[in-house]
């Protein structure tokens, strides 16, 4: 069965902390997306990965294809990073369908 | 335009009524996707288009749901005879492509459908 699991489900951090959110999937993929959903509901696509590592500002995303695992790191976290972070994958053999993880709710406090 | 525009923001329908949602993708993007978010964190893929052609409809409940992307018109998602379980936020997203790394999705702000 094609599944995507994220951990942790909820995460509270203090401003400045380094944060890691994990995503594991069950079978081979052609692409993995990291999405951020703001408290108001809007969704921003942070990264699309098929291999290696990407960095944008304080955000870093890595993927290990052999281990079927991806991580999203936030360095020097800030209260404005508070949001739900969602991992979504396109399994190999599917045309465009994304399968979503259940999200990680991040709260960064002062 | 430079953003994915979804209308309306909110839609209320009585059970059994029709609902029609609209999405204008970013100009130049070839792919359009519809997703349904039920409760807060359960996303379900519905359908995707490559320009005006259906690309992938594996997530579409075909009995009551239909979608179109016609040239020079916003894309639309229509639900005939809505049911209570159709209550959800419907997100549209567009993308310039699928294959190349870095082709992210751009999401609209969603349509909140409430079926009473």
One letter per element, helices H and strands E, the order of chain A comes to: EEEEEEEEEEE
Fraction of residues in H or I helices of chain B: under 10%
Tell me, rounded to a whole number, the average pLDDT of chain A.
94
Strand content of chain B: over 45%
Distance between the termini of chain B: 34 Å
Class derived from helix and strand content of chain B: mainly beta
Total beta-strand segments of chain B = 11
* Low-pLDDT segments of chain A: none
Sheet having the most strands of chain A = 6 strands, mixed
- Cα-based radius of gyration of chain A, to the nearest Å: 13 Å
What is the number of E strands of chain A? Answer: 11
Using the alpha-carbon principal axes, give the shape of chain B. globular
Key descriptive features of the protein:
heterodimer; A: 110 residues; mainly beta; six-stranded mixed sheet; five-stranded antiparallel sheet; 59% strand; B: 116 residues; seven-stranded mixed sheet; four-stranded antiparallel sheet; 0% helix; 50% strand
Explained architecture:
In chain A, strand 7 (59-64) and strand 8 (69-74) form a beta hairpin. In chain A, the strands form two sheets. In chain A, strands 2, 4, 5, 9, 10 and 11 form a six-stranded mixed beta sheet that branches. In chain A, strands 1-3-8-7-6 form a five-stranded antiparallel beta sheet, with no helix packed on it. Chain A has strands spanning 4-7, 10-14, 19-25, 29-37, 43-49, 53-56, 59-64, 69-74, 83-91, 99-100, 104-109. The radius of gyration of chain A is 13 Å and the shape is globular. Chain A contains no helices and eleven strands. Chain A is mainly beta and 110 residues long. Helix content of chain A is 0%, strand content 59%. With 116 residues, chain B is mainly beta. Chain B is built from no helices and eleven strands. Chain B has strands spanning 5-7, 10-13, 19-24, 31-38, 42-50, 53-56, 65-68, 75-79, 88-95, 106-107, 111-115. In chain B, a hairpin with a 3-residue loop joins strand 4 and strand 5 (42-50). Chain A binds chain B through residues 31, 33, 35, 41-51, 84, 86, 88, 90, 94-100, 102-103, and chain B through 31, 33, 35, 40-45, 48, 55-56, 58-59, 89, 91, 93, 98, 101-107, 109-110.
